Amino acid sequence: MATMIFVNLPVKDLTKATEFYTALGFTQNAQFSDQNASSFAISDTIHVMLLVESFFKTFTSKEIVDATKATEAIVALSAESREGVDELVEKAFAAGAKKSNETMDQGFMYGRSFQDLDGHLWEVVYMDMSAVPDQP
């Protein structure tokens, strides 16, 4: 079995967060979704778990970071093409995301970023491995 990653994110409004991630085209897994959580498959091995803050707090003794004011992590996803980067990021903006950084274009690597409704940072990147410069 391949290693899987589950990104767990605290959210203030589960309904709005669920609508946002649905608008991105991610597939909700009803088996792991209820009044406290909404589970989405991004791929076969990557999942995002949206957890209402009170439920999220049951998994940690630390304070929850207010992602609109501070950053704890940036979640980066690969895309199949530059167009794939643009498509996902534009879906995010249409669903209410905010711009995070300027577009990054290094020729072989292209990326854009957004903040979801709770301020969590996401990057979407395409890398043309055949054009990566040789390292000294």
What are the main properties of this structure?
2,3-Dihydroxybiphenyl 1,2-Dioxygenase, domain 1, 136 residues, globular, single chain, five-stranded mixed beta sheet, alpha+beta
What does this structure look like?
The longest helix is centred in the middle third of the chain and has 13 residues, at 82-94. This protein has helices spanning 14-23, 53-56, 82-94, and strands at 5-11, 27-28, 37-41, 46-52, 74-78, 98-99, 104-105, 109-115, 121-127. The protein has 3 helices and 9 strands. It has a single domain (5-131), classed as Roll (2,3-Dihydroxybiphenyl 1,2-Dioxygenase, domain 1). 20% of the residues lie in helices and 32% in strands. The termini are far apart. The protein is α+β, with helices and mostly antiparallel strands. The model has no long low-confidence stretch (mean pLDDT 94). The strands form 2 sheets. Strands 5, 6, 7, 8 and 9 form a 5-stranded mixed sheet that branches. A 4-stranded mixed sheet has the order 1-4-3-2. The protein is globular.
